[in-house]
Amino acid sequence: MKCEKCGADIPAGAKTCPKCNAAAPQNTVPQNKSVNTTDKNKSASAGKKNTNSNSNQKLTSSGKINTSGQAPSGTEDNEFDRQYSLMFESNQSNVGDADYEIDESLKKKREARYDDSFANMTDDEKIKALEAARLARKERREKKQAKRSGGIFSSFSGQDKENKTVKETVETGERSDSSAPFGQRSHKAAGAAERKIERVQSSSDISTVSGSADKSDAAEKRPKRSGKRSKNFKVSPKTGLIAGVIVAVLVISVVIASVNMASKVTAGIPATPTVYAKDNSLYSYYGGKSVEVSQNFIASEYTEQTEPTATPNRNRDDDEEETPTPAPKFEPIKEKELINYTADGTLSYFLDNADLNNNTGSLQYTQNSKKNSTVKIADNVYYDIEIAEDGSGVLYLTDTDEFGAGGTLNFWSNISKKAVKLSDNVNIGNFRFGQNGNSALYITEYNGEYFVGDLYLAEITKGEVAEAKKIESDVYKVFGTNPTGKSVVYAKNYNTENECFEIYLKNDNLGEPVMVTDGSRIEPVFLKNSEGMYIGGTYEEYYQSLYYASLENGEKEKIAGGLTEIIKMSKDEQAVVFRKANAEGTAFDYFYANQAGTEGQLIAENVTVLDDEDHKKVSQFEINDDFTKAAFIQGYDLANESGALFVVSITNGVVGSDKKISDTAYSCNITPDGQTIRYADNYDIKWNLVTLNAYTGEQSKVLAQEVGAGAFSFDKTGSYIVYAKNYSLETRTGDVYCVDNKGKTVEVVKGVSSYGLKNNGEIVYYNKQDNGSNFELFFTREDGKKSKSIDKDVTKVVLY
After folding, report:
1. What pLDDT was estimated at residue 327?
2. Distance from chain centroid for Cα 628
3. 131 near 121, Cβ under 8 Å?
4. Which residues are CB-contacts of 256 (< 8 A; sequence separation ≥ 6)?
5. Cα-Cα-Cα-Cα dihedral sign, residues 535, 540, 541, 545
6. Dist. CA 593–CA 788, nearest whole Å
7. How far is residue 369's CA from residue 344's CA, in Å, rounded to a whole number?
8. What is the pLDDT of residue 104?
9. How far apart are CA 283 and CA 289, in angstroms?
10. Strand (E) positions, 19-87?
């Protein structure tokens, strides 16, 4: 028997609850009948609140005040509450809120009882009682919504509910993934996706040389603005080197697009600026030169707002009226999110005079390493901007609210150095450049209740913007264009129940828009070198079909089934890797599919889902850009932090048999040529240490031992691994080393507090002495040679 007040078990024959002293329920209801105790729970919650106060008064299950300290009889009240609750259950709908048939006599009796109970309460008790009732309603509402959310598969769709993001990177196959530290792709990346499928998270992944993870920087989840925020995607190509007394090992994944590389490069990977602050002045180090770019980086630090105090309202029927969904909680951005740079690393766009209470500031442009090149573009700019692939311009919003909604969309040309207003009433995420930056796409007048707005396209030629043309009405989301910018792909008819939408194509040759597919849950993957795209569609029983579709006429061919999300496109754009979530949502199977096929070929199965902060550094699936070899960890066991590592070859579009190379793998990586599998294994649970290995030519070789589990980075060229060890608790420093795939080890630098491996192989580091606030920042190559001081009296490294 369960207590109707607190839910505790009541021994047979007992007259009162041993936990809360409430009267034991009477057997007035058959045991097999489901009874809603909503109102009893609400009152009980209120009673618990008062029990924790200084008052000796307690609320009974009916909401009345009990000052005796003894258990109330409760029989009459319990039966009344049962009848009252059943009144609200009689017409409950499974697709929405209930249509209640109100029994007015019961309602009036209830109101009279509440008035009587409130008359005996202090103001503080009234507030607590009302707050408890509100929380109970909120909990019921969330449970109801969870049942209608589409199950566990909704968390794997490209159409994510928490403003999660997707971005395509094609030429390198690398993901602009600030959540994948240490030079390796995230476990959710499945080997550096061309499409950024996974969540954009905080890039401040801190790890000590001993391997202990600092969990202070949790994954950032931007709140969706109810009725306004759109579910669009963005790129966030930045990572910060975090100051502190522990070794931070972070790597920035720069988006490499089809641009004219004018910067200095290492092995074809462009150099990127290292941005740091000295007090409130901002500096950029690039090409061997340090330049001050702002004297007032942050104008207003974030000040957390206090919640308004609730006040009782006796005229409100708390039992009948559902409290509206609360407004999303504002969260300030990280300082590194105020800074963006072009794919070739030569130009930067950043906000200074930033107000972190509304995530806005003055948008500035600068040529990295060039003095006096900073140009102010606009004031009151929302931080989330879009930069053209070739750096020729930027799209940005002004005059938004703190969530980036309802702003004015503008385009600034790096060629003419002029700004042009495109439209009013545009939300963040509802604008983007077409392929190659030759057009601007945006949705205006967006209705967040029905997920619709008007889609426009404005052509851009040599920095000049043509008059915008309306493409379509009632558009849910815009995805992009073909390489020439003439064919526009967008979504309509978003279904909140299954999170699916229809994908449409429009160009001048078609006349009317063509629906390419329905039942899609992911963003298309556009080809860069031809008129095609990979899409998901015809969602059924939790999975989509994978199609290759023409961007000329919208015709499609099915190439696989069982799709949850696309992970990566091959360098020649002829194939993709996708994954399928199991029914429990605990593991993925990975498949290979090409344009000539009709079904996917299994590459890996039972790859554990690791989506928590502690495992962001763990990469479980890797495939090289040519799609010739893949490595994966099967059955990762959280108890011992390891699984079985396999390698598999793909020859002429056929997936071969896999081969096991380790039983205790912790994380894996594959070199661009596919010749070497680099991996960490033999995880030491007590000391958080791993062993680094390289598998080449059917043989494994140990490269380094007793390495901090969170303190190693695989370089992008596939030539070496940078790692830290010998962490000292006394000095809070460690030693940094570099080892190649044959085991040759070089000491890079000793006694550092923090270091970061840049995307092009350069290393920045510092040693914070005596817990001081300032430090000297250094630069060196991976071999430790040509070490150079960047600057002194540095207070923080913002990104690198």
Report:
1. 66
2. 30
3. no
4. 169, 171, 172, 174, 269, 270, 343
5. negative
6. 48
7. 14
8. 59
9. 10
10. 58-59, 65-66
- Asked if 683 and 666 touch (Cβ cutoff 8 Å), the reply is yes
Q: Are 665 and 643 in contact (CB under 8 A)?
A: yes
Nearest 5°: phi and psi at 156?
-105, -5
As given in the structure block, the two tokens for residue 746 are 């070089």
Of the candidates 506, 529, 505, 527, which has an alpha carbon nearest to the alpha carbon of residue 516? Answer: 505
Of 440, 438, 464, 284, give the one whose Cα is nearest residue 364: 284
pTM for this one?
0.69
Task: Please state whether 521 falls in left (phi above 0), alpha (psi between -120 and 50) or beta.
Answer: alpha
Helix-helix angle 123-147:38-51, to 10 degrees:
140
- The residue assigned the tokens 């009682």 is 129
**pLDDT above 80: residue 781:** yes
| Residue 216, CB-side half-sphere exposure with 13 Å CA sphere | 7
Residue 241 neighbours by CB distance under 10 Å: 28
Mean pLDDT of the chain: 75
- pLDDT, tens only, 370-419: 999 999 999 999 999 999 988 999 999 999 999 999 999 999 999 999 99
* Res. 606: pLDDT tops 60: yes
The angle formed by the CA atoms of residues 583, 659 and 187, to the nearest 5 degrees, is 45
Using DSSP bridges, classify how beta strands 556-563 and 289-294 pair: parallel, antiparallel or unpaired: unpaired
Distance CA 136, CA 248 (A): 43
Q: Is 6 exposed, middle or buried (0-12, 13-18, 19+ CB in 10 A)?
A: middle
Q: Where are the beta strands (DSSP E) in 227-280?
A: 265-266, 269-270, 274-278
Residue 228 CA to residue 230 CA, distance in Å, equals 6
**DSSP string for residues in 6-24:** T--B--TT-SB-TTT-PBP
Backbone angles phi, psi at 758, to 5 degrees: -75, 165
Length of the chain: 800
Distances (CA, A) of 144 to 92, 97, 593: 11, 9, 38
Neighbour order of strands in the sheet with 543-550: 525-526, 532-540, 543-550, 556-563
Using CA atoms, how far apart are residues 575 and 594, in angstroms rounded to an integer?
4
**Cα 253 from Cα 255, distance rounded (Å):** 7
For residue 61, pLDDT over 70 is answered with no
What is the amino acid identity at position 413?
A: S
CA distance 600 to 592: 5
Could you tell me which of 610, 616, 617 has the C-alpha nearest to residue 723?
617
Q: How far apart are CA 507 and CA 531, in angstroms?
A: 12
